[in-house]
Write a structure and sequence with these properties.
Number of domains: 1
Number of strands: 11
Structural class: alpha+beta
Strand content: 15-25%
Helix content: 10-25%
Order of helices and strands: HHEHEHEEHEEEEEEE
Oligomer: single chain
Radius of gyration: 23 Å
Largest sheet: 3 strands, antiparallel
Shape: globular
Distance between the termini: 82 Å
Strand order of the largest sheet: 1-10-9
């Protein structure tokens, strides 16, 4: 006897459901979002700072749209995002402190996000989504302890840069970063950066993730590491003091 087509469809659907692994059926991977935010207050904004910040964020946004993150690849903000160039036609302007000053807002907010985003690994342990590979500190009240200096120099003599990568332990969906830059006044703005990714295991309701042991302690820097004579966003910042050193797992160029 021939089986009616609607009934056959039901049988096939049930068979496919039965073939799904218990892990997939249980929905063990869950989407997660982390965010970082900086606020530009008028008293900390000099002429051209927000223009250069917007230009850097715009370059980063365009780069993200064309370059999905790859495993075990270290990314450089100056080399990959800015392509070693900061030009007027790219939206950057001169300021009282130098051309392009203020552009380090983008790597600084990225650095905050890198230190914020965490995922639950398949072993139930919470781990950082990203890893810092190089961080030239930038002392600035706008960025707090996450200030990251960059300096584009074709000669290579000034190598201030920010470099990061995805944690090799992460096996979830490709992280997606989005940026929102909102002017809140003539000399004030707020920038939000979010990353969407997945936990590798969904824990039962009410069961907390096992906290991983911290690999670094983030404290406000006491000086500009890799210091030029003037701080890119805070020209009056103090020079590095003897004994100031970045955490052991982070690099600093001089």
């Amino acid at each position: 006897m021939r089986i009616a087509r609607p009934l056959l469809t039901i049988f096939l659907a049930l068979a496919l459901i039965g073939a799904v692994s218990p892990a997939a059926a249980g929905g063990l991977t869950t989407t997660r979002t982390a965010e970082a935010r900086i606020t530009y207050y008028a008293q900390h904004v000099y002429g051209g700072r927000l223009t250069n910040a917007q230009a850097a964020f715009a370059r980063f946004e365009r780069w993200l749209a064309k370059n999905p993150f790859a495993e075990r690849r270290t990314y450089s903000f100056t080399r990959d995002v800015l392509e070693d160039s900061m030009l007027e036609e790219q939206g950057f302007v001169d300021t009282a402190y130098g051309f392009g000053y203020g552009a380090c807002g983008a790597p600084s907010l990225l650095n905050q996000l890198v230190h914020t985003a965490r995922f639950i690994d398949s072993d139930g342990t919470e781990k950082p989504l990203f890893e810092v590979r190089r961080w030239t500190r930038e002392r600035n009240p706008t960025y707090g302890p996450f200030g990251a200096a960059i300096y584009v120099d074709p000669t290579g003599k000034r190598a201030s840069d920010y470099r990061w990568r995805i944690n090799p332990a992460y096996d979830g969906a490709t992280p997606k970063i989005e940026i929102s830059f909102q002017m809140t006044g003539d000399k004030s703005a707020e920038v939000l950066m979010t990353v969407t990714y997945t936990d590798e295991i969904g824990l039962p309701d009410g069961e907390p993730a096992t906290k991983a042991k911290p690999t670094r302690k983030i404290t406000p820097p006491q000086g500009l590491f890799g210091g030029e004579l003037k701080n890119a966003d805070n020209p009056d910042a103090a020079a590095p003091q003897k004994g100031d050193q970045p955490p052991a797992d982070e690099e600093s160029s001089k």
